[in-house]
Amino acid sequence: MAKFVKIYPQNPSEREIERVVKVLEEGGLIIYPTDGVYAFGCSLRSPKALERLATLRGKSDKDLSIVCSDISMADKFARIDNSQFKTLRRNLPGPFTFILEASTKVPDKALGGRKMVGVRIPDNSIPLAIVERLGFPMATASVKDHDEVVEYTTDPELIAERYDEDVDLVIDGGYGTLVPTTLVDLTGDEPEVLREGGGELK
Questions:
Q1: Which residues 6+ apart lie within 8 Å of 78 measured at CB?
Q2: Which residues pair with 42 in a beta bridge?
Q3: Which CATH superfamily is 3-195 part of?
Q4: Statement: the pTM of the whole predicted model exceeds 0.85
């Protein structure tokens, strides 16, 4: 049965953040709020948790991204040139997923044979505090049913009910939205918006 933890985004409790991090360090799977839809998260360093996340989301899932606390953390796990850095700095934290070339620090299990990784720095203090305390990124994927964001995914209590047997902890950080991130490919000569979402690219 999943633990249910209330954390306020305005002032995340250090004790509760510590509790979440402990679950992640032990290979647990969590559901947490972002600046858009709620998301699954696990430690990027836990092969067991990455496997559980892949199973839960479906083996063919291409939406797995990493959540970083800031651009300097992202720079360790993705190859970022000057032009890409400027784009990230202008738009993050914010409701974006930026596709970048993964560095060798991203485990193969997280990439699933791909060379690219989605990078998230959400404009929400809860995941930022978790990842900062963890010391490295979380692997993450949006809470969706059959690739469709549905109404219950905005309500943490309904999410907890739905995924009670699948995850170890659900964070109630208030109601989420049904708006996905803006997906931007930064691997070409110019940024390419692949999906319009909550962010307007600057």
A1: 100, 101, 102, 103, 106, 117, 119
A2: 29, 139
A3: DHBP synthase (3.90.870.10)
A4: yes
For 53-93, the pLDDT digits (tens) are 988 887 555 567 999 999 999 999 999 999 999 999 999 99
pLDDT at 145: 63
What residue spans define the domains of the chain?
3-195
* Mean pLDDT of the residues in the chain: 92
Distances (CA, A) of 165 to 56, 160, 161, 170: 11, 9, 9, 11
Residue 185 structure tokens = 């490919």
Q: What is the 3-state secondary structure (H, E, C) of the chain?
A: CCEEEECCCCCCCHHHHHHHHHHHHCCCEEEECCCCCCEEEEECCCHHHHHHHHHHHCCCCCCCEEECCCHHHHHHHEECCHHHHHHHHHHCCCCEEEEEEECCCCCHHHHCCCCEEEEECCCCHHHHHHHHHHCCCEEEEECCECCECCHHHHCHHHHHHHCCCCCCEEEECCCCCCCCCEEEECCCCCCEEEECCCCCCC
Q: Residue 114 has what pLDDT?
A: 87
- 125-134 vs 14-25: helix crossing angle, rounded to 10: 60
Verify cis geometry, omega within 30 degrees of 0, for the bond prior to 95.
Answer: no
